[in-house]
Design brief:
The structure is a single chain. By secondary structure, the chain is an all-alpha fold. The termini are close together.
Length: 154
């Protein structure tokens, strides 16, 4: 079920996958799983967001392609927390793909005076990213399953 890729936070994904007897068969699967484990384990909201977003890099290297993929995946998500965030962003007429890319990924990865930036000491910035976390995580999980062929632990 899309959006339900939820191993317990204390249970490493690798252990959950061992229990399901899944063995990655290619470099993209191995990289996506490594990035997912990193995102789960990092103790920073901005870097957790970026960690989940990096899973999109396994599939698409450019921003336009990533925005397009996000826009295509969003309607397919069934994760309750992701759906709540999608509803709030749509109610505010936000282009979700562009929002996650520009105000999330780029704002975390690039500290630029001329563009959006996430200041880790600014609670408004980290609060917004915290609200977006269930959405970017659900997108990453969906792509891991549907595009990379990584089965969800049962």
């Amino acid at each position: 079920r899309p959006g339900s890729f939820r191993p317990q936070e204390t249970l490493p994904l690798s252990k959950a996958l061992i229990e399901t007897a899944f063995v990655p068969t290619n470099d993209r699967q191995r990289l996506a799983l490594a990035l997912y484990r990193e995102a789960i384990g990092v103790n920073s909201i901005p870097y957790k967001f970026l960690g989940f977003f990096k899973i999109l890099n396994v599939l698409d290297s450019g921003g336009k392609a990533q925005v397009k993929r996000i826009s295509a995946v969003v309607p397919l998500l069934t994760d309750r927390d992701a759906e709540k965030r999608i509803g709030k962003l749509r109610a505010a007429n936000v282009d979700i793909g562009k929002h996650l890319y520009v105000s999330g990924r780029c704002a975390v990865a690039h500290a630029s005076a001329s563009g959006p930036v996430v200041n880790p000491d600014n609670h408004e910035d980290t609060g917004r990213l915290a609200l977006d976390l269930p959405l970017i995580r659900a997108i990453a999980e969906y792509l891991m399953e549907k595009e990379l062929g990584i089965p969800r632990p049962s």
